[in-house]
Amino acid sequence: MRFAYRAPMRLSWLIVVGFVAAAYAEETTSLIAKLSDPKVDVRVSAAQSLEKSTDPARLGPLENAATTDAEPRVRLQALKALGPEHVGQDAKWKALRIKALQDKEPSVRGLAASQLKGQAEAIAPILAALQDERDYNYRNQMIVALDEHDRRVVDYYLSILPVKAGRALVLDELSRSGDPRVVEPLIKAARDHYQNAVSAMARTEDPRTLAVLAELVADPDDDTAREAIGELAYHPDRRAVAPLLARWKKLDGKQKQISQMTQNQLSEAFGDRGEDVPGFELSTALRAIARVDPAPCEARKAATGDVRAYLAAILPATCGTPTIGEILKLVGNQLDALGGKKPLTGAFTVDAMVAILPTVGTSPADAIKALGETGSRSNDGEAVVTVAADGTSAVLSFVPFIDGRTYRASELVVKTAAGWRVAAAMWSRPQPNDVVNKAARANTQLAFTELKGLGPADQGLEAAFLDLQRGTLDKDAAARKDLLAIGSGPGERTVGGGLLATAWTAAWSKRSSLANPLIAKLAPSGNTGWVIADVILDKAKPVKYAIRFRLFLMFDKTPAGAWSLVHAHFAVAPPS
Quick check: helix, strand or coil at residue 36? Predict the structure, then answer.
């Protein structure tokens, strides 16, 4: 009876599927016929409709339309309808695009180049097409399709750098090529006042460019000087301090007053254009240098009069060190690496643990999947660095902004033979407390999936966490003024161990239990470590309920050899 009941169901399903397939085939046949209609608009519309089809019968007629139709609009739409998905799989479709690079219509040539992006065999034909391309809109489309890392492409970019039309795009491509041959031409372009050349030069991150940035601060061309000042915020160098102060002395009284404003004051006074106001950009550059070098503080000590008062107003009490500057470069490097623009090895250790919540992955490759390889990415706040006592590990915290989504990042970075690299990281998105509490009371809050494959927990770190879970912050952590704690809700961020110690005792001590096995790992030095703990926090008011958290904690060894908390990051999964 069971079989007899199901057989008609299966038969009816087959009938429906067969009917739908026949209908699709009939529709495709009708659209193919319309590709030969004498009316141009009908042919264009048919090609547009066939773009949505998956029927292989459409390919031959579309190929014919893309190569032989007298109307450029039809050829363009037929090429769009074919799509780029077959290009890397079949030489026939690659050859079709390469042939289309010679089409009489610029838009067809540009689309063909775009569809050939990433195909090594297409570089030479695209370069050849570019030699004769006079339409700069589609010329730029071809340039973007090229691989900026290919030596032939770099040679071509360098050859057309003097051409003003399309130069901004060429400068951008050269800056990302990674070819050391581009540095000197970019330096010359910056000195020759090519628009955007200073930024392109700085993005190469070649040490030779830092001295040029300092030099260009004093350039008589105001646009070039201001571009150099702006880049110093991202590429700080002590050699720029003197020319920055010399430029500040030339400001008028109002501009000098503006230069001492805070970011909030500037925004209130000038809105979105505040950071471009002369004066404030000088302060931004000097503060950036002060974060990584003692030179601005040394200048403050030696200065007199209004210069001394200005530096006293804008600089921190103490300046940073070159080590902090090296670590801060990891922010941009990993954003580029996670976006596919730079190799992962330039930002992460080989065995790096990178958890982008609420996904399960624990590697940089998993992070790329979680974030997506395309889209805008930047740091949306001041990065904070705390270097460990032994100088070989540090805590890095910043605010990644990816495609309109704000994250909070906490990372353990370590010094390697190749430079500073991220060894362990957790990124989370803030969740509104009221929404999380409501989900927890309704028992609909998502739980974090157990992270696996990270090996056994270090016993010493595990004991340090359990002591914290059952008691209070250790005395060294409670006294630590730079202990940063990131909460799970929007805007929850405190600095100072005393603040966290009070909050922990009131809300966390003896109130949480482990939901998954503890992860506790050491940095290579053995003096710094990190812990991931999935816990359930019991809440008693107004009714009894429990909230699931993931904690990312970093510890450093005291001179006595005891583990002490140096950073805490609390995260919750979004409601289901």
Answer: coil
